[in-house]
User: Fold these one by one.
Assistant:
Number 1:
Amino acid sequence: MALMKLFFSLVSLVVLAGCGTHPAYPGSASSNQTVTEPAFPSVAACLAAMRAAPPGSLEANRSCVRIDVENALSPAFVVQAVEVEVDGARLYAREEPLHQRGELDLVSTFTVGLGQMAPGVHEIRLGASLVPNEIVEPSLHGWRWHLCAKHVVTVAPGAGLSVSAQIYENRAERRPMGQWPVARYLDNGVEAPPLVGPGGVDPGDAGCPRVLIR
């Protein structure tokens, strides 16, 4: 919990300082996992703590943001790795044993961050690695997918925001097999327009998280 509070404080300081470059984060290409606990149990609790802060303090002028990752894929896909960055700093990273179903695949929705941030513009980037469940769909043998989706949000002072990064399938749209898994963002339950390509996915974006790959 202390690590999560430290992270959101760091993000707030970067934004308040007006820094125009994203800080490098350690171990981005390693298998080290970064799994933190939310600083608050809910957005409402976060807002209550902020409103209880002394007037004029840094905490009193922040906003509350919750970031979830939602796995809306069919059983044909297994989520192998997920990495999330906020304003260039790694917030969450987890990789499961190769071709094994773990928490990333068995838990449909999980929170990767919930804490106070400086109001203003923030950039969220999701990276995910998927492999096929060949027992369910043997025709996908040998495939592996890597998704990268970025999202920009503007958080108002004193406001709360719930962001869901959803990984889903669009095979019903008759896309090629390589484009079946995609990602999209929902802000307070409303789908946000994509920034780049279908679902905001841009695998060639060098600024996206580097998914943990063996």
Note: The helical segments are 2-16, 43-51, 103-106.
Number 2:
Amino acid sequence: MYNTLMKNSLVVYILFLLLLPFSLYSSEPKQKQLLTPAKTLEVLQGLNGSAITFGTGKKVIHTFIDPYCELSQRYLAFVFKKKKRMFKKYTLKFYLYELKGKKSSEVIASILSSDLKDIALKTVMINYEDLEIEDDGDAEDAIDLISEAAEKIGVYKRPYIIINGKVK
């Protein structure tokens, strides 16, 4: 009886170990890029006035971020930590796009209403300070444009990084 119980337990344990990798990778389906790289770049060209841009390099990196997203904050902090090299090599275009549940729409409107959007973005995302800029209503158009583009492209996470039209 004991031997049978041990054999059954061993079989269950081995099956568990064999199936564990599949459950780890299949729990969250990987999203695919909705548009071709060329179409993605075409959509992004319509957002140039809505981007907060850093750097003057030849290579362009487009990134959708949420000011309250911890991963977006870490990504921006990394960019600024390496800014000497990053800003020479790349032109970084950031688009503020709210993640569900983060409730960042007011701060996004405040940043986009600021005369110094780059400083406002760093204040919120790197220094973790609140903004006291009133939304003058001009940000609404930029927010709508970014949201429409994000839906066309299929933005599903933050940061959502696009290089040469391809999602990274």
Note: Residues 111 and 120 are 6 Å apart (CA to CA).
